[in-house]
Specification:
The complex is a heterodimer of chains A (170) and B (328). Chain A has six helices and five strands. Chain A is an alpha+beta fold and 170 residues long. Chain A has a five-stranded mixed β-sheet with strand order 2-1-5-3-4, sandwiched between helices. In chain A, a hairpin with a 2-residue loop joins strand 1 and strand 2. The model of chain A has no long low-confidence stretch (mean pLDDT 93). Chain B folds into two domains: 164 residues, Uridine Diphospho-n-acetylenolpyruvylglucosamine Reductase, domain 3 (2-Layer Sandwich), CATH 3.30.465; 110 residues, Enolase-like, domain 1 (2-Layer Sandwich). Chain B has a five-stranded antiparallel β-sheet, with no helix packed on it. Chain B has a four-stranded antiparallel β-sheet with strand order 8-9-10-11, sandwiched between helices. Chain B is globular and about 55 Å long. The chains are: A alpha+beta (170), B alpha+beta (328).
Amino acid sequence: MHTYESGLKEEMQHQSELSMTINGVPKSRTVKPWVSLLDYLREYLDLTGTKKGCDHGQCGACTVICDGKRILSCLTLAVMKEGSEITTIEGIAKDGELHPLQQAFIDHDAFQCGYCTPGQICSAIGMIAEGKAKTRSEVKELMSGNLCRCGANTNIIDAIMDVQKGAGNE
Amino acid sequence: MQDALAKINISQKHRAVAGGTNLIDLMKYFITDAAELVDVNTIPQHHAIEELPDGGLRLGALTTNAETAYHPLVESRYPLLSKAILAGASAQIRNMATNGGNLMQRTRCYYFYDVNTPCNKRTPGSGCAAIGGYNRTMAIMGTSEHCIAVFPSDMCVALAALNAVVNIEGPDGDRQLPFADFHRLPGDTPHLDNNLKDGELISSIDLPAEGFPQHYSYLKLRDRNSYAFALVSVATAFELCDTGISKARIALGGVAHRPWRVTEAEVFLNGKDPVRVNFEAAADIILQGAVPFEHNAFKIELAKRAIVRNCMMALDPDTQLPGAQPSH
């Protein structure tokens, strides 16, 4: 007979031990296979800097850097990233110094509510590393996966262009 | 590979997952019937991009869209494909989504996604809510009384124009499908998007040697400038000679259940001068059989103008803007 208890037992059997390096620190948790990377970061590791906006890959708020590439953590199952190196917004400041993009976002007033900001910054880090955007219109195009509903887009692109210049990409 | 095939073969409810950008989203909406996922990312031979002896290029099914679009051989020999890929989705999604997955993605028809409405693609026999509903984004060609959904890919529009070939592995052995035979029209089986059989996997996609690197353009028209599906998109490639056009390819996206090519229009352009009036005539041939619904008649004129504009842009690829936007 299929009871709540037997169902629960069956569910527990699906759990597995998952190990990743998050912001340079090895982390292991027991996790069910259907947990998204986003929920894993937020609910299992209490790294709530990565935001859940739409949870459907349409807004970019959940952007993290996985093995050097920017990806959407909401459309990835955590178990598919076993052994990966993940960087979230919590991991980009070094020795108490803000990351240049964090400082540029402050300098350019590149947010109002701030909900899209962690995703914007992680995405911009990935974009600069990719080295494909040179002009302002190319930056806009390659940042289009991150929506800002406050309308701070112009200042966001200003902030990124500033850091981009410093990185020698222009 | 054999392990993955064996697992997928256990039952139809096992689905391969690679990038996950569409499948995992569909699972969140309770739309897919997948009971268990098989992560196929560990099949190493499906990750490669390699040159073929005939001068063509083989794109691994598990190579990501971004790796493909920015690959030096794709950029230099198949810039049309590179442009089309970069017109789709966002940078993050292109870093995850794979080439095989791009072919396998499902329609973004609102009614397919809304489980409270009938949809023959989602629930065969339940009806089509789009035909009498809000159908602004739906198909104008190749529709049936059962389904008017469009196939949403940009990459596949370029693959269609380039005469790509899909390599398939399965329990009954390997086989190849020309790109034109991979995706289906809805007919009375709209739940079938393509001709892949149960238990089969795409292993790679072959590009023929002919890549049209001189005269090509991809134009994508949509409700915002970036990160939106096409209302109409066009992939155009020409080979020009002293006497005019010696070869033409034109494929449309956003207008049908699969990338849309009308070879009569391409034959018509052969030997003609590369000028607007000929492109307009070709556009008329392509849109001849178009059948609009209540809200999408605009797509017919939009597609005609997009074809003409993209043919002009293809003559001078340097005028193209990032994101396949219309040039000034």
